[in-house]
Specification:
The chain is an alpha+beta fold and about 140 residues long. It has three helices and five strands; from the N terminus they run αβββαββα. The protein has a single domain, classed as HIT family, subunit A. A hairpin with a 3-residue loop joins β1 and β2. It is globular.
Amino acid sequence: MTIFSKIIAGEIPCFKVYEDPHVLAFLDINPLSPGHTLVIPKEPRAHVHELSDESAAAIGRALPRICRAILKATGAASYNILQNNGSAAHQVVMHVHFHIIPKFPDGRGLGIGWSAGTLERAAGADLAQKIASAL
């Protein structure tokens, strides 16, 4: 059982901002900026690819609504949505969760380093075909 399962069960309090039958959203207790919110499915899965279609759709419906509310409440005009899968990808709590992190002109929010590579035409065509076939 994760800390998020305990929050869903009401065993640990949270600053709830949204709840429906499939999704819970609450303020992060270690925020990168004001309004930093976690959006989690109530379905206990560690990775996005493990979610049922129903839970995934519920997250997809809730995220834009919660983002609009955060922007309105904080006055921020920009934000990041961050979601990690697996410890190598920096996931700490093994329950699917999306961070909505408002970004402010003074720099508060998520900082990102991005080391982009290149995609060669033949390699891209081959990889796209493999992914499409796996669907």
